[in-house]
């Protein structure tokens, strides 16, 4: 991310697929997110048949995930009139530096990551800290399908159907103390299976760390995802548990989380530490504040190729301004990029 600027040639012309094929039925139904009351959206079918996506490769879902699928709220949040990115692009054009810096590296190398068993620590300023087996951690929560735009700071974007649950529900469960003002997230650190962490060229000080303000984390759009395209997360997309904050640049959406800490001070995050003039703590999608080395006014929507770059205007807060702009009414977004 730091060193590479995405070029149209990164995608082969053969990757281009007619957009209409990937329009999901529910996307066209257009139950868009109006207001922040996600849980109260009309037209949400409880336990309905899973959405079907054209090209999904089946995974080997753990038992707890299969059990949860039956009660999933399909299409709980959608994006109107925008094609869902083909599964192949969403799973073979990735950023997951623990597995390499090229877009194809995570798909090629992340198979070595063992996601079962997986444990997660919630600690810091909470009344109920704990170490959980993943299946116990997710047990209280109903899965929802959330179709969100994902906008990378490198100026490419996708539309992805995630399966997850709101971070706010988790926070209510663990009860932040009055001192808690931020969340700090940490990815697994295991150089044995993560070649990027063994590389002597790596600039990142592992583990990968991200953070949110507590009120951002409480916003109904912020979710912890365990699946995508109706199946469990592929390893390269951050299995078994990742953050999704759709109004922020993709680097905030940290993958393969092992620790969530509630803290009093703003945590230092991976990209901010590495290049503070290029990547900030907030990282809200903002077409009016350019990256020092490229414009943020436009983006390439994948699939994108040399002859069909599929460029579109970037939307303020990635199109989620109605839901999140009030979080930043006191903030100069030019300084707090
Ligand atoms: N999380 C970890 N642990 N390591 C990473 O390198 N890359 C980030 C984010 N989360 C990254 C990460 C970046 S830059 C982006 S754009 C998104 O993951 C990409 O998510 P995707 O590969 O599922 O599209």
Automatic annotation (TrEMBL):
Has the keyword Oxidoreductase been applied to this entry? yes
One BP term from GO:
protein repair
- Any idea what this protein is called? Protein-methionine-sulfoxide reductase catalytic subunit MsrP
**EC number(s) reported in the record:** 1.8.5.-
Which family does the similarity line name? Answer: Belongs to the MsrP family.
> What reactions does this protein catalyze?
L-methionyl-[protein] + a quinone + H2O = L-methionyl-(S)-S-oxide-[protein] + a quinol; L-methionyl-[protein] + a quinone + H2O = L-methionyl-(R)-S-oxide-[protein] + a quinol
* Cofactor(s) recorded in Swiss-Prot or TrEMBL: Mo-molybdopterin
Taxonomy of origin reads: Bacteria, Pseudomonadati, Pseudomonadota, Gammaproteobacteria, Pseudomonadales
Matches recorded under InterPro entries: MsrP (IPR022867), OxRdtase_Mopterin-bd_dom (IPR000572), OxRdtase_Mopterin-bd_sf (IPR036374), TAT_signal (IPR006311)
Q: How is the cofactor bound?
A: Binds 1 Mo-molybdopterin (Mo-MPT) cofactor per subunit.
User: What does this gene product do?
Assistant: Part of the MsrPQ system that repairs oxidized periplasmic proteins containing methionine sulfoxide residues (Met-O), using respiratory chain electrons. Thus protects these proteins from oxidative-stress damage caused by reactive species of oxygen and chlorine generated by the host defense mechanisms. MsrPQ is essential for the maintenance of envelope integrity under bleach stress, rescuing a wide series of structurally unrelated periplasmic proteins from methionine oxidation.
Could you give a GO molecular-function term held by this entry?
Answer: molybdopterin cofactor binding
Keyword Signal, does the record have it? yes
Assembly information from the UniProt record? Heterodimer of a catalytic subunit (MsrP) and a heme-binding subunit (MsrQ).
The UniProt entry, under PANTHER family, shows: PROTEIN-METHIONINE-SULFOXIDE REDUCTASE (PTHR43032), PROTEIN-METHIONINE-SULFOXIDE REDUCTASE CATALYTIC SUBUNIT MSRP (PTHR43032:SF3)
**Record: residues binding Mo-molybdopterin:** 94, 97-98, 152, 187, 237, 242, 253-255
Name of the top EC class for this enzyme? oxidoreductase
């Amino acid at each position: 991310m730091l060193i590479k600027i995405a070029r149209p040639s990164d995608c082969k012309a053969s990757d281009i697929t007619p957009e209409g094929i990937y329009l999901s039925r529910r996307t066209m139904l257009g139950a868009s997110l109006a207001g922040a009351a996600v849980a109260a959206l009309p037209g949400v079918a409880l336990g309905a048949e899973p959405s079907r996506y054209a090209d999904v490769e089946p995974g080997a879902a753990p038992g707890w995930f299969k059990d949860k699928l039956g009660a999933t709220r399909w299409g709980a949040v959608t994006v109107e009139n925008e094609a869902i990115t083909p599964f192949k692009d969403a799973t073979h054009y990735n950023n997951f530096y623990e597995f390499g810096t090229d877009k194809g590296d995570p798909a090629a190398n992340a198979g070595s990551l063992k996601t079962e068993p997986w444990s997660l620590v919630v600690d810091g300023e909470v009344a109920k800290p704990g170490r959980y087996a993943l299946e116990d951690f997710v047990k209280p929560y109903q899965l929802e399908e959330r179709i969100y735009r994902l906008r990378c700071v490198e100026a490419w974007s996708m539309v992805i159907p995630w399966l997850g649950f709101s971070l706010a529900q988790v926070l209510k469960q663990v009860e932040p103390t009055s001192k808690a003002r931020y969340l700090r997230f940490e990815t697994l650190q295991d150089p044995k299976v993560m070649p990027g962490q063994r590389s002597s060229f790596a600039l990142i000080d592992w583990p990968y760390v991200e953070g949110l303000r507590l009120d951002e984390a409480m916003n109904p759009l912020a979710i912890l995802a365990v699946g995508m395209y109706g199946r469990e997360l592929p390893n390269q997309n951050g299995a078994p548990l990742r953050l999704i904050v759709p109004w922020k640049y993709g680097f905030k959406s940290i993958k393969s989380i092992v620790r969530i800490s509630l803290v009093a001070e703003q945590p230092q995050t991976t990209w901010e530490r590495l290049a503070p003039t290029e990547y900030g703590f907030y990282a809200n999608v903002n077409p009016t504040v350019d990256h020092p080395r490229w414009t943020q006014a436009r983006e390439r929507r994948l699939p994108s190729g040399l002859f069909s770059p599929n460029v579109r205007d970037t939307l303020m807060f990635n199109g989620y301004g109605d839901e999140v702009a009030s979080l930043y009414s006191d903030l100069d977004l030019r300084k707090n990029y």
